[in-house]
């Protein structure tokens, strides 16, 4: 009964505390920029301020009076077991007990003074210690193990293959288990040890919150590029000092005023949980650009048809990400036989790409579209329109070819691509494997929430997340997602092998296969085997990528379909880096083999300096499928070394946060490998985040 009475008082305090937190949350809301008449601005502010002051005063008065009434009704004495000053009363000089009463008052005063000079140890029962421990550990678990991974997943919906609905269960289970186990361990401590542990856990949660909101400026993106951590020395020192100072301050306050600190800490924990819950709920409720919810079961790029070709006709495009012509030239200088398997091919070493980075370039390559003077800006909605409107893939389908597109950088076009390809479609809903999901998302959360000095140990790459969470459907390729893992792809290619599978009513197969290629991190050795994270070099990575292509070509020859296959090996773009402007020539590799030449009669790979590139890719593909290529431009094999202006669109990245700001147009007049032949045309398109 006694505990029930005290519980009612706690609930009343929590109710009014929540009301105060709700008022505090106004400061955390996102501002809405709208026009307000300046003539009434001052009066509006004054009126709102007056209302806020009046409401806060009223809230405090009501709280105190209700609390007093509740304590009286429940017969609870808050002064029980406390040192209370006795009632004051006058002693008359004529009182016969005057001297006795004065002596008694002196003795009481001396006793009080002695007790005030002695710090009595705090004695908390185990249940009280467990309660405070749970407050601290649940706050830490919620901040780092729930909010961080779910915000990362929800905020990266266009880069990840899965949604919050696929990972929230293992995240919630792990967070609760972590909080309960840590709370039980903490509650076993007593006295100063418990106070220090409680303060430390609370401080870690608040420090993580401050890190995310104030100290993560310029956090390197997870794009696979090696991070020069030395460039972040200043913010590393600042964040470390703030973390140490905050933890020290919390411990000091806990030791000096332990009970008061616990009360304030619990109230702060409640406020922080509510604030983060509102932020997370707002993010999860935001619709995707295509109108679906963040957790909706969206289309996936599956492996369906990945290892299948036609015995009628094949048009195959293999994309080796970031593989620059400069890289291939360096390889040929050290290994002249690197292209021995490419018989019947022509190596065009004066090629120009379309756009950078990958998701921009792929949109152009797959749709045959590029920026024009009529486009006011570059945006995600423009990319989606390229995919959804009539484009190159529609022409491929009209020509009777079964299309398979294998790339995870087509998020903006997945809905449209699901209607134009055979392998992009929804798969049965799933929940990520517990250990793999917690392992990778915990790593992401710690990378985001820890101070800079500890971030390098938890750095991750976007493909690591997809590879860890997405399920492996085994032999069912229609439900097995296609993921970037060149070493795994190479092993599957060798074990499973290519096979003939002609769909009824088709004229052939179109395959667009995107591999990591020369993109960092470098994990392939020269034989195409996994060498560990950053366990290889750029040159080894390039050689390993070509080894995978060699195997693909060899199997086409074994199947006897090499002759009727048009094969293009290129890159989405060449060497690229985050910068306001490119400072050197960028040239994607380009090797082309037209159909029609029997393998036994095919010549070794030829080298051409014709002025060509991705602008000629669409016409080449349409022609290879028997279509009218005249409306798509020039075929690659028709390009010559005659003077020809070619154009390339680069992305300008500015600021510590690497903000994409402009698409700039470059004109190449001459050799694509000579930056002296490159010049800006002055055409620019602002990048709009929509």
Major beta sheet, specifics? 7 strands, mixed
Name the average pLDDT.
84
Radius of gyration: 34 Å
Uncertain runs: 25-49
How would you describe what is shown here?
It is a single chain. This protein is of the alpha/beta class and 690 residues long. The protein is 45% helix and 12% strand. It has a seven-stranded mixed β-sheet with strand order 7-10-3-11-12-4-13, with helices on both faces. A hairpin with a 4-residue loop joins β15 (645-654) and β16. α4 (126-155) packs antiparallel against α5 (168-187), α6 runs antiparallel to α7 and α16 (486-496) packs parallel to α17. It is elongated, with a radius of gyration of 34 Å.
Keywords for this entry:
690 residues; alpha/beta; 7-stranded mixed β-sheet; 4-stranded mixed β-sheet; 45% helix
């Amino acid at each position: 009964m006694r505990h029930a009475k005290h519980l009612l008082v706690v609930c009343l305090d929590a109710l009014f505390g929540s009301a105060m937190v709700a008022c505090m949350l106004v400061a955390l809301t996102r501002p809405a920029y709208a026009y307000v008449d300046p003539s009434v601005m001052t009066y509006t502010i004054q009126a709102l301020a007056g209302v806020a002051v009046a409401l806060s005063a009223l809230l405090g008065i009501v709280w105190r009076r209700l609390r007093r009434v509740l304590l009286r009704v429940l017969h609870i004495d808050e002064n029980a077991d406390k040192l209370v000053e006795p009632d004051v009363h006058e002693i008359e000089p004529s009182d016969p007990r005057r001297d006795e009463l004065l002596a008694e008052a002196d003795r009481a005063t001396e006793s009080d003074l002695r007790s005030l000079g002695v710090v009595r140890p705090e004695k908390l029962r185990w249940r009280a210690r467990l309660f405070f421990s749970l407050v601290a550990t649940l706050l830490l678990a919620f901040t780092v193990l729930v909010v961080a991974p779910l915000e990362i997943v929800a905020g990266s919906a266009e880069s990840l293959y899965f949604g919050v609905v696929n990972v929230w269960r293992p995240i919630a289970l792990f967070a609760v288990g972590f909080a309960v186990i840590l709370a039980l361990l903490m509650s076993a401590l007593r006295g100063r040890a418990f106070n220090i542990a409680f303060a430390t856990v609370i401080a870690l949660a608040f420090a993580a919150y401050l890190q995310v909101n104030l100290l993560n400026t310029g956090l390197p993106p997870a794009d696979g590029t090696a991070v020069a951590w030395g460039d972040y020395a200043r913010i590393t020192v600042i964040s470390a000092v703030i973390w140490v100072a905050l933890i020290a301050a919390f411990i000091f306050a806990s030791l000096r005023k332990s009970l008061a600190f616990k009360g304030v800490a619990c109230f702060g924990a409640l406020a922080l949980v509510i604030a983060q819950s509102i932020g997370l709920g707002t993010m999860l409720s935001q619709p995707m650009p295509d109108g679906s919810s963040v957790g909706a079961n969206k289309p996936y790029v599956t492996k369906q048809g990945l290892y299948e070709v036609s015995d009628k006709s094949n048009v195959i495009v293999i994309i080796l990400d970031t593989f620059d012509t400069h890289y291939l030239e360096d390889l040929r200088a050290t290994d002249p036989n690197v292209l021995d398997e490419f018989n019947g091919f022509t190596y065009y070493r004066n090629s120009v790409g379309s756009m950078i980075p990958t998701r921009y370039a792929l949109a152009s390559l797959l749709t045959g579209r590029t920026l024009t003077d009529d486009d006011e800006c570059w945006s995600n909605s423009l990319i989606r329109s390229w995919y959804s409107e009539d484009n190159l893939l529609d022409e491929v389908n009209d020509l009777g070819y079964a299309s398979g597109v294998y790339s995870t950088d087509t998020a903006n076009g997945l809905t449209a691509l699901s209607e134009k390809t055979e392998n992009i479609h929804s798969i049965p809903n799933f929940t990520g494997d517990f250990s793999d999901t917690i392992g990778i998302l915990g790593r992401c959360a710690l990378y985001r929430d820890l101070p800079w000095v500890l971030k390098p140990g938890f750095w991750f790459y976007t493909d690591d997340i997809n590879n860890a969470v997405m399920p492996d459907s085994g032999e069912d390729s229609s439900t097995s997602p296609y993921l970037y893992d060149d070493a795994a792809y190479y092993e599957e290619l060798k074990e499973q092998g290519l096979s003939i599978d002609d769909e009824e009513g088709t004229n052939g197969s179109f395959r667009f296969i995107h591999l990591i290629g020369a993109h960092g991190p470098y994990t392939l050795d020269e034989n195409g085997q996994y060498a560990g994270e950053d366990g290889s070099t750029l040159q080894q990575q390039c050689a390993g990528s070509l080894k995978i292509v060699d195997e693909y070509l060899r199997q086409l020859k074994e199947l006897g379909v090499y002759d009727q296959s048009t094969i293009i090996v290129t890159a989405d773009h060449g060497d690229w880096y985050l910068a306001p402007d490119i400072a050197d020539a960028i040239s994607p590799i380009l090797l082309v083999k037209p159909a029609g030449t029997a393998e036994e009669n095919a010549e070794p790979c030829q080298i051409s300096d014709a002025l060509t590139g991705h602008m000629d890719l669409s016409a080449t593909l349409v022609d290879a499928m028997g279509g009218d290529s005249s409306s798509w431009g020039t075929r690659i094999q028709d390009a010559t070394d005659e003077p020809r202006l070619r154009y390339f669109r680069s992305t300008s990245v500015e600021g510590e946060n690497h903000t994409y700001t402009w698409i700039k147009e470059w004109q190449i007049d001459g050799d694509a490998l000579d930056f002296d032949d490159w010049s800006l045309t002055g055409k620019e398109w602002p990048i709009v985040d929509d």
